[in-house]
Design brief:
The chain is mainly alpha-helical. It has one domain. It is 75% helix and 2% strand. It starts with a helix and ends with a helix.
Length: 240
């Protein structure tokens, strides 16, 4: 017998499958990227609930829009003929893998479900802040500075930030934090999600200015550390 929850889950899985296929068709995700996006979404669904899948969808839509914004201009800055919009499996895992792991862990260890839920929201807030600040800060920023030395830097380079890009990142984290609060009706923890998201975005810039700039690690690993650091900071509220 199908319960209301089972019906909701089946509809959500169908929606996940259709969105992944549509993203592959529209050249937003590679085939493997679409598969991993679907798997991450299902982990989130079974562990954190269908409302959290909506939160993941908000991140995806914001990121897709930001990447498409002024893409010819960004391509010219990078010396390319076209700014890349297609995301592969590594990029999907780097931005959403930590959230997916939180969902999987919540399914296996439901006693820690609420903490993992906040951690997952924090990782999404960091990913959103990073994507929006990187993609839109490059376009709308006026003056650019090195995150470590605060000396003037070159637009679009690793670890280079602007006031405008930073503020846009704040807005991205706030959108996820407020969306989480509204969807789950838990307003107290929105501040934790927001602060952790901003922290993760800061870690991303620091790693970009140091390890990534020296080619010690790549951008995908930087993004993984970024989302993980946001989730870790959120977990401290429950562990300390």
């Amino acid at each position: 017998m199908l319960t209301q929850q089972n019906i909701i889950n089946l509809v959500a899985i169908a929606g996940i499958f259709l969105l992944s296929c549509f993203s592959i068709y529209k050249n937003k995700l590679t085939i493997t990227g679409g598969i991993w996006a679907a798997l991450i979404s299902i982990c989130i669904l079974v562990g954190l609930g269908y409302k959290f899948v909506i939160l993941l969808g908000i991140f995806f839509l914001l990121g897709t829009w930001a990447t498409s914004n002024a893409k010819q201009y960004k391509a010219a800055l990078q010396g390319n003929t076209e700014h890349p919009e297609l995301r592969d499996a590594y990029q999907v895992l780097a931005n959403g893998g930590v959230t997916g792991l939180c969902g999987l862990a919540a399914w296996i260890f439901p006693v820690y479900g609420f903490m993992l839920q906040v951690m997952g929201a924090a990782s999404l807030a960091a990913a959103t802040a990073d994507t929006l600040s990187s993609e839109l800060g490059t376009v709308y920023g006026k003056k650019f500075y090195d995150i470590i030395t605060f000396k003037p830097g070159q637009r679009g380079k690793d670890g280079i930030i602007s006031v405008e890009g930073t503020l846009i990142g704040f807005i991205g984290a706030a959108i996820i934090a407020l969306s989480y609060a509204l969807l789950k009706e838990i307003y107290l923890y929105a501040a934790i999600v927001f602060v952790a998201g901003i922290f993760g975005n800061y870690i991303d810039s620091v790693l970009g200015a140091t390890l990534e700039r020296k080619s010690i690690i790549g951008n995908n690993l930087v993004n993984t550390f970024m989302t993980a650091s946001a989730a870790f900071l959120a977990s401290l509220y429950f562990l300390l």
